């Protein structure tokens, strides 16, 4: 299960006076192992993102329908046909460059920090129960998002503007709205990432443990597939409303004095009041259609890459 990120350490007799020093050394894995750990995590997320990116574009377009008002919603198929007709097939890959950049950084940190955090909690509280797994995932997701939020802002802006260029978009955002605009929506984004990572990784981890214990499944592709499907469903149900609020805030312009949403809570309140409670799940199917396969691809690839790199299974 998810735990150590370092290869097994051979048992070496230690005299009592040196026991503490030896224990501190075994807690620090070699630099090559750390690089492999974060590298496999980032690469698996980037590959999964590349495959599912068109669904992310559709999700953003669905979430930006009828901002601030009620009205009939166009489904994912309708949005897809509209994009094909008006902007062409390339529109499905708007924002791909920052998406892949963010995937390597964010994915590497999000998955990479989970295990060390869980090891620290295990050391501090002598427990690896499901609450520890949830806390570890929440911490890893929040930290990863706080560091990579500017790339996410640029990605979302590019997905709504087919003529934008990444570097030019960054310059425009900073010149018109200030450098703080690159961290626009960071609050809901951190909450979403904490909820996503906690639900995704903790569910995957716990599902694997239960399936191994109560079924005939053993470590391998079928166990990873079943566990990742469950993780994808749970994480989608929990994070869809937060994702919608995050998108609205990131696309909000600050060029004038009037702002539609003051913060994440205000955004959620106004969406429910003016567009109805179900508006929080705008793009919900697109989120699942993207997050479900992305979760499966990420975990299956990560498990395989970790195996090739000589790391423990997750």
Automatic annotation (TrEMBL):
GO CC list: membrane
Pfam families: Mito_carr
Compartments (UniProt record): Membrane
Keywords: Membrane, Repeat, Transmembrane, Transmembrane helix, Transport
Domain of life: Eukaryota
Coiled coil: none
Keyword Transmembrane: yes
Similarity comment text for this entry: Belongs to the mitochondrial carrier (TC 2.A.29) family.
Protein name: Mitochondrial substrate carrier family protein
Membrane-topology annotation of the record: Multi-pass membrane protein
Swiss-Prot/TrEMBL Solcar repeat ranges: 36-120, 128-210, 219-308
Record-linked PANTHER family: MITOCHONDRIAL DICARBOXYLATE CARRIER-RELATED
InterPro entries xref list: MCP_dom_sf, MCP_transmembrane, Mito_Metabolite_Transporter
Record's keyword annotation contains Translocase: no
């Amino acid at each position: 299960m998810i735990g150590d990120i370092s290869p097994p350490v051979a048992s070496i007799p230690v005299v009592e006076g040196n026991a503490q020093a030896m224990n501190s050394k075994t807690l620090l894995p070699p630099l090559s192992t750390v690089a492999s750990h974060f590298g496999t995590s980032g690469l698996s997320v980037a590959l999964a993102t590349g495959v599912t990116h068109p669904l992310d574009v559709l999700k953003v377009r669905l979430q930006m329908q009828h901002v601030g008002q009620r009205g009939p919603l166009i489904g994912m198929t309708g949005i897809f046909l509209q994009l094909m007709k008006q902007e062409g097939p390339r529109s499905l890959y708007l924002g791909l460059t920052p998406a892949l950049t963010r995937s390597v950084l964010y994915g590497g940190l999000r998955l990479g920090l989970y295990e060390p955090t869980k090891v620290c909690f295990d050391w501090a509280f002598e427990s690896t129960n499901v609450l520890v797994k949830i806390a570890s995932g929440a911490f890893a997701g929040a930290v990863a998002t706080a560091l990579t939020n500017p790339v996410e802002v640029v990605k979302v802006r590019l997905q709504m503007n087919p003529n934008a260029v990444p570097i030019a978009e960054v310059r425009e955002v900073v010149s018109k709205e200030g450098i703080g605009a690159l961290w626009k929506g960071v609050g809901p984004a951190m909450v979403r990432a904490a909820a996503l990572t906690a639900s995704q990784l903790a569910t995957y981890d716990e599902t694997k443990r239960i399936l191994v214990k109560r079924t005939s499944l053993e470590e391998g592709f079928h166990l990873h597939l079943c566990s990742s499907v469950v993780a994808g469903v749970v994480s989608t149900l929990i994070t869809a409303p937060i994702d919608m609020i995050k998108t609205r805030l990131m696309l909000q312009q600050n060029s004038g004095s009037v702002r539609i949403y003051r913060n994440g809570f205000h955004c959620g309140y106004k969406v429910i009041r003016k567009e109805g409670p179900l508006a929080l799940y705008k793009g919900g199917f697109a989120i699942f259609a993207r997050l479900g396969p992305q979760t499966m691809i990420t975990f299956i690839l990560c498990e395989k890459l970790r195996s090739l790199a000589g790391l423990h299974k997750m």
